[in-house]
């Protein structure tokens, strides 16, 4: 058995342990949505702004949101248990109070960075980002809640790690270095977009990565290329079947995130003449992720991400695009041997 397949097997075992610690014996399919979907989309985008600003790996957002999801699921089960036993619930309302929810998000991100040894973001920085609506005491208290609520004896296998192994399974005879990097970057782009949808947090990262990988292959590979052996290995080691529904959802996220030029909104000649030659979208759509570090921009306060301001927010500078689609997201260029 080659090293790539062994690595995949180890990741699958880590995934099994991680999901067991998160969901236990509960039937995941019966779980209802516990996030406010608008809040989730906005804070995930905010997290990407922050990690880009401090030049950290974007994969850390996946880990931070995993911590957040696990913590909120514990909180949700506690509330349900108290309601069943007619017990009064004291403390913070993470699922219904926007301030408590934001504090949990910021704290999860801070814990993730600290666990990785990254010290460029401090509690004081988070307080400033919240426009002082959240105090350092709030962050420290929520941090204690998160630490004591979760199990920390297992690694978090991210979808990006599975994607890396899947790309490594591709034959060097069929795919050169540049092709593998392009496939990997496209796969990671879809994974980043999927984090904003809570449903994907209940989906095994190995499956999310596989379906994103399949979409990337269809984008960069001829249908005549035989990849049956790669698919057989992935299916055998992960135990998954392909999900066209999942693939289509990822494709939808990707299509919405692309910047298109010369979009004909009103197909009337007189209206067409009024339009500029080159069009590009601003940050109106919450699914658009930053594809570059925010080197010329400040970290946006989390308070600016609310229902009223998010769709009014414009990018400081909107460059006309020379191609139909925007470039793939910023990820560290990876060598595949």
Automatic annotation (TrEMBL):
Residue segments, region Disordered: 306-337
Domain of life where this protein originates: Eukaryota
Any coiled-coil regions, as ranges: none
Residues making up the signal peptide according to the UniProt record: none
Residues annotated as domain Cyclin N-terminal: 25-153
PANTHER family: CYCLINS
Identification of the protein by name: Cyclin N-terminal domain-containing protein
Native organism: Chaetoceros tenuissimus
């Amino acid at each position: 058995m080659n090293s790539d397949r062994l690595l995949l097997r180890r990741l699958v075992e880590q995934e099994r342990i991680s999901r067991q610690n998160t969901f236990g014996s509960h039937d995941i399919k019966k779980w209802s949505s516990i996030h406010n979907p608008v809040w989730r989309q906005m804070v995930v985008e905010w997290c990407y702004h922050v990690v880009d600003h401090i030049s950290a790996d974007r994969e850390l957002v996946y880990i931070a949101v995993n911590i957040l999801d696990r913590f909120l699921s514990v909180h949700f089960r506690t509330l349900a248990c108290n309601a069943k036993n007619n017990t009064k619930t004291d403390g913070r309302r993470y699922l219904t109070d926007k301030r408590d929810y934001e504090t949990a998000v910021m704290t999860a991100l801070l814990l993730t960075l600290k666990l990785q040894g990254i010290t460029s973001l401090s509690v004081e920085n988070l307080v400033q980002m919240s426009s002082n609506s959240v105090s350092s005491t709030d962050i420290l208290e929520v941090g204690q809640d998160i630490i004591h609520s979760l199990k920390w004896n297992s690694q978090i296998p991210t979808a990006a790690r599975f994607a890396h192994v899947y790309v490594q399974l591709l034959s060097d005879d069929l795919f050169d270095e540049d092709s593998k990097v392009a496939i990997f970057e496209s796969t990671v782009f879809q994974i980043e977009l999927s984090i904003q949808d809570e449903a994907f947090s209940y989906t095994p990262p190995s499956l999310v990565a596989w379906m994103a990988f399949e979409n990337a292959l269809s984008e960069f590979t001829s249908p005549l290329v035989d990849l049956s052996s790669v698919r057989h290995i992935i299916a055998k080691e992960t135990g998954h079947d392909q999900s066209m529904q999942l693939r289509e959802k990822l494709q939808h996220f990707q299509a919405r995130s692309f910047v298109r030029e010369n979009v004909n909104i009103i197909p009337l000649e007189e209206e067409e003449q009024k339009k500029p030659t080159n069009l590009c979208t601003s940050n109106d759509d919450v699914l658009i992720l930053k594809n570059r570090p925010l080197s010329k921009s400040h970290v946006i306060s989390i308070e600016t991400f609310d229902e009223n301001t998010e769709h009014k927010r414009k990018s400081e500078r909107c460059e006309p695009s020379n191609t139909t689609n925007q470039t793939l997201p910023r990820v560290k260029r990876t060598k595949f041997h």
